[in-house]
């Protein structure tokens, strides 16, 4: 996730970006998208905005070693790690966000804590996609919907691609058609004033092809499976918090 943010932000040219990691391979991968790489936390601690993108159990020990001051902002993106827990280990302004991998292409969906978000963080999130400001208590479900959500979408996209292949399309053609269809449908939802149900109706003509396919979906438990996948991810986010 840190790498995705780095790649997305690098396209703007608006920031001096420094990647800090102990792993030389990670630094090598980050180098094309930043101004400098380092394995020294003291260098990272000099930044006005510090983004910490590590496994949840590493957040608190690393933040404790960063030694930030009240004029700095710390953005955390670890699942299950509450803002108040991080605040115990730093003097910086702590903002919690849950972005997703589409930051890579500046198409990210993110949720951010509205009680602590700053204009600086809003500017960063604006560059790499869309975001909503939510209560801290809603972060677990946001983690499931937009943080884990890309994997669920990839799964469904793969199913549509496979159907195309089974019907005779080449794998490449089927993947392009399925992926662009998901992309176009998502853009339509974001740009349209119509509800999702109204958009479905707009595609379905009486006795046409789409209504035949939708009848299969409406008669299935596909929606229940997706909801349960999101709920499972939400439960795991809560477990991480308690752990």
Automatic annotation (TrEMBL):
Signal peptide: none annotated. Its EC number is 1.5.1.2. It catalyses: L-proline + NADP(+) = (S)-1-pyrroline-5-carboxylate + NADPH + 2 H(+); L-proline + NAD(+) = (S)-1-pyrroline-5-carboxylate + NADH + 2 H(+). It is found in: Cytoplasm. InterPro entries: 6-PGluconate_DH-like_C_sf, NAD(P)-bd_dom_sf, P5C_Rdtase_cat_N, P5CR_dimer, Pyrroline-COOH_reductase. GO terms for molecular function: pyrroline-5-carboxylate reductase activity. Its main location: cytoplasm. One of its GO terms (cellular component) is cytoplasm. NADP(+) binds at residues 53-56. It comes from the Archaea. Keywords: Amino-acid biosynthesis, Cytoplasm, NADP, Oxidoreductase, Proline biosynthesis. GO terms for biological process: L-proline biosynthetic process. Residues 136-240 form the Pyrroline-5-carboxylate reductase dimerisation domain. Residues 1-80 form the Pyrroline-5-carboxylate reductase catalytic N-terminal domain. Catalyzes the reduction of 1-pyrroline-5-carboxylate (PCA) to L-proline. PANTHER family: PYRROLINE-5-CARBOXYLATE REDUCTASE, PYRROLINE-5-CARBOXYLATE REDUCTASE 3. HAMAP family: P5C_reductase. This is Pyrroline-5-carboxylate reductase.
């Amino acid at each position: 996730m840190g790498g995705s943010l780095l790649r997305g932000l690098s396209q703007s040219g608006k920031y001096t970006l420094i990647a800090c990691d102990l792993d030389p391979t990670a630094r090598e991968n980050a180098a094309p998208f930043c101004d400098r790489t380092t394995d020294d936390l003291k260098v990272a601690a000099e930044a006005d905005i510090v983004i910490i993108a590590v496994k949840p159990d590493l957040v608190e020990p690393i933040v404790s070693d960063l030694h930030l001051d009240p004029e700095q902002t710390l953005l955390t993106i670890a699942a299950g790690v509450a803002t108040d827990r991080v605040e115990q280990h730093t003097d910086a302004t702590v903002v919690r966000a849950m972005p997703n991998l589409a930051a890579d292409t500046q198409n990210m969906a993110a949720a951010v804590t509205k009680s602590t978000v700053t204009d600086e963080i809003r500017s960063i999130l604006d560059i790499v996609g869309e975001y909503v400001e939510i209560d801290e208590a809603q972060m677990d479900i946001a983690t499931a919907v937009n943080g884990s959500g890309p994997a669920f979408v990839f799964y469904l996209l793969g199913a549509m691609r496979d159907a195309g292949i089974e019907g005779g399309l080449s794998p490449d053609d089927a993947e392009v058609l399925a992926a662009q269809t998901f992309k176009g449908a998502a853009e339509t939802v974001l740009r349209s004033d119509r509800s999702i149900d109204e958009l479905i109706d707009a595609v379905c003509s009486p006795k046409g092809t789409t209504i035949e396919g939708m009848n299969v979906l409406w008669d299935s438990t596909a929606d229940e499976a997706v909801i349960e996948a999101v709920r499972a991810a939400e439960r795991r986010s809560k477990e991480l918090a308690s752990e």
